[in-house]
Amino acid sequence: MKKNKLIFFLRKLGPGFLFRSLRAKIILGVSLILILVTGSFTYYETTTRIQFELKKQEKRAFDISAAVLKGIEYPMLDGEMEDVQEILQKVGMLEGLEVVKLIDLFDTIRYSTDPDSIGKVNESEITLNALRTKELTKGLESYKGKKVFSHAIPIHNEQSCFKCHGSEKDILGVLTVGINWGPIEERIVALRNQKIAVEVISLVILAFFLIRWLSRYVTHPILKVTEFANEVSRGKLNAKLDLGKRANIWQIYKTHPGDEIVQLRDSLTYMLENMRGMYEKISLFSKDLESQVAKRTEELEQKTAELEQVNIDLKKLDELRSTFLANMSHELRTPLNSIIGYTELLLDRIDGDITEEQENSLTKVRNNAKNLLNLINEILDMSRIESGRVEFDLREIDVRDIIQTTVASLEPIIHKKALMIDTDFDENLPLAYADPDRVRQVITNLLSNAIKFTSEGRIILSARHSPKTKFVEICISDTGMGIREEDLGKLFDMFTPLDISATRPHGGVGLGLSICKRLVEMHNGNIWVESKYGVGSKFYFTLPVKE
Ligand SMILES: Nc1ncnc2c1ncn2[C@@H]1O[C@H](COP(=O)(O)OP(=O)(O)O)[C@@H](O)[C@H]1O
Ligand SMILES: [Mg+2]
Fold first, then answer.
1. How far apart are CA 291 and CA 289, in angstroms?
2. Which of 36, 47, 182, 526 ranks highest by number of CB atoms within 10 Å?
3. Helix (H, G, I), strand (E, B), or coil: what is residue 422?
4. How far is residue 65 from each of residues 159, 175, 393, measured CA to CA in Å?
5. For the segment 211-244, what is each residue's pLDDT rounded down to a tens digit?
6. Is the full-model pTM beyond 0.85?
7. How far is the CA of 441 from the centre of ligand 1 (A)?
8. What angle do the packed helices 436-452 and 512-522 form, to 10 degrees?
């Protein structure tokens, strides 16, 4: 399966697949240049070496020739031809010498280190040339199947020779020294081959490091970017570009044959197309969104306008209520006060005597009228507080005075019950900073409640100072009926007279405590209650001290 895949892959890539990657191309180029440079360098070096060797051998051959000529001069003059042959034979023993021979003007070998060739026709082209041109001739040629460096110099006819050879001829023959070239050439070739081997190995190592370097710093990052672009173009928008990780080269080549740059181009083009598509979708979507927002804004504006209208209506209504309350205050309180006043006149018998029955009825009229007046006053107070139309006349007040005057004003009701009233004040009670009328209202309320809900026992009004909180704390405690635990939480809510059966005979609609709470809180104070059902209650409130 895996093999099939690979074959399919290679077929798809085509024959040039090896050179398809950018890396392969760069390496191929660099290698070619390197081979060319080192090759020509090696070639140049080898040829100079050959030239050098030739020069060296030429010098050697020349030296040998000179020595031979010198050596044979006297044997020749003396006509001792054997000695000439012997000298040649000896010289021929020198290392690397292939042949030394003397040729006469008829190209016949007269003396030679190779005795077999004596008397035969010379076959060396170079020797023949020297004979013809009468000049030193040298070069490489083949001698008996071997490569030799031949060095042929003409032997000039000198005065000493005239005796035997006469004076017309200018040369007498040619002396040829043949040096064996084979070993020299072998040495040069071996050196060259060695060099080539070193070069090839260095090239391979270089290529290896080049591949690593290229793939790490050039092609691999490109592939990673390509892979990344591929993923993004496929809609994987959370793709990450991690250059440290290996790229999945097979995956990339499968989809984009061609080198890395081509792949990158394809991927980026694909990505761009997708992005264009996305952009179109987004712009469509945003247009839709805009129209929706516009619609909603319009709706909102309409609603706001409606609300504004409702607000205006509400304000009007509030004004109406205020005027109504003001009117009611006047229209109800005036007649009620006159009812109370006249009833009291009658009760005081100022208009004449009345019967006991009449007195009872008139007392009921007076009490109910007072309750009604009280109720109206509470409703008016609450409504003023609710609409924020209460003004405070803040000043430094002595809480003790207010408590005492309030107790005095309620004395008549207290005396009707078997109640003891006590006060208890801190010695250095500071002045509180509050509206005296409002404070009196709060204390009256709490004290009337205490009297109302206590049939016998004791009521204590106390005031103390807590320097830590900088507040004066007032407490009204009674030994009355107390409040059930479950009712404590709703005590200060509006219109909550508790346990109707118990409180009904006492009158009241349950506004007093909520008015107290508002008034105290408007002074930045606090109000709370501690109570035990059947044992008694303690109502506390605090007022600020002027700093
Ligand atoms: N000192 C108290 N002892 C027992 N119950 C009390 C006391 N003060 C208030 N309450 C309870 O709290 C209720 C609410 O009091 P309040 O707001 O003054 O209204 P109201 O006096 O008109 O009934 C009273 O109806 C009563 O049930
Ligand atoms: Mg009350």
1. 5
2. 526
3. strand
4. 20, 7, 148
5. 888 878 877 788 788 778 777 777 777 888 877 7
6. no
7. 15
8. 150
Phi, psi of 494, deg, nearest 5:
-75, 150
- Nearest-angstrom CA–CA distance, 131 and 169: 12
Dihedral, CA atoms, 375, 377, 382, 385, nearest 10 degrees?
-170
Q: Pull the structure tokens for residue 299.
A: 């709706």
- Ligand nearest the Cα atom of residue 513: 1
CA of 445 to the centre of ligand 2 (A): 6
Residue for token digits 């009833």?
A: 343
Tokens 């005027």 correspond to 323
Q: Is 379 in the pocket of ligand 1 (CB under 6 A)?
A: no
With contact defined as beta carbons under 8 Å apart, do 527 and 539 qualify?
Answer: yes
**In this predicted model, what pLDDT tens digit does every residue of 383-439 receive, in sequence order?**
888 878 788 999 999 999 999 999 999 988 888 888 999 999 999 899 999 999 999
Ligand closest to the CA atom of residue 503: 1
- In the chain, the amino acid numbered 85 is Q
Instruction: Ligand 1 pocket test: pick from 503, 517, 533 the residue with the most ligand atoms within 8 Å of its Cβ.
Output: 503
Is 491 touching ligand 1 by the criterion CB < 6 Å? Answer: yes
Residue 398, phi then psi, degrees to nearest 5: -95, 110
Give residue-wise pLDDT tens across range 345-368. Answer: 999 998 889 999 999 999 999 989
The DSSP 8-state label assigned to residue 121 in this structure reads: B
Residues 6+ apart with CB under 8 A from 117: 101, 109
Measured from the alpha carbon of residue 508, the closest ligand is: 1
Tokens of 50: 């050959």
Mutate to test the pocket of ligand 1, among 382, 447, 449 (most ligand atoms within 8 A of CB): 449
In the reported structure, the alpha carbon of residue 469 is separated from the centroid of ligand 2 by a whole-number distance in angstroms of: 28
Residue with CA at minimum distance from ligand 1 atom 18:
512
What residue has token string 């109800």? 332
**457 pocket-lining for ligand 1 (C-beta < 6 Å):** no
Going by C-beta distance under 8 Å and a sequence separation of 6 or more, which residues neighbour residue 156? 170, 171, 172
Closest ligand to residue 496's CA: 1
Q: Residue written as tokens 């240049």?
A: 33
- Atom 9, ligand 1: residue with shortest CA distance: 449
